[in-house]
Amino acid sequence: MTEPPRPPGEPDPNDPTRPFNPYAANDPTSGSTPPPYTPPPGYGPPPGYQQPGYQQQPPPGYQPGYQGYGGPTQDDRTWILVAHFGGAAGAFLGGGLSGWIAPLISLLAKGNQSPSVRAESVKALNFQITWAIATLIGWVTSCIGIGFIIIAAAALIAIIFGIIAGVKASNNEPYDYPMSLKLIK
């Protein structure tokens, strides 16, 4: 049996003048490959180990959400945006008092069907109710002059953070409102 021709410039592996290579198994010109590594018995991952980077199957009855497998559907994302941007728009149009209406509508319309819509609507609703109460306190104290500053600050906070939450939701990222009371669970 004859050996196939070698490309020009490649040394002959059977040449006796060739220097000794103690790592011949790793030498691609030697014609042999090292055997695959097998760990000794008793080494390796424990039973039931899930290699990082691989997703496990969701448990039975699991519904997708932000931290889940797949995330919210397009319809869910629309209702989440209604909750956040609608809260900001309501706070703007209602002088800080009516920002809670859109998150409440979103919660009642889709909250029982989608856990991600419910979670985001509850966050928006709690935040907008908190700042509607602050605005109401501003209206009550407006007779002493400081109330108008409270009204303006509360309305601005409700609008700005509602827009920030809406932008985060449009990027499919959950957002936790700062300075919010947990009135609705």
From TrEMBL:
Keyword Transmembrane helix: yes
Membrane topology: Multi-pass membrane protein
The name this protein goes by in its record: DUF4870 domain-containing protein
Keyword annotations of the record: Membrane, Transmembrane, Transmembrane helix
Region annotation Disordered: where it falls in the sequence: 1-69
Compartments where located: Membrane
Lineage of the species this protein comes from: Bacteria, Bacillati, Actinomycetota, Actinomycetes, Micromonosporales
Pro residues biased stretches: 1-16, 33-49
InterPro entries registered for this protein in UniProt: MamF_MmsF
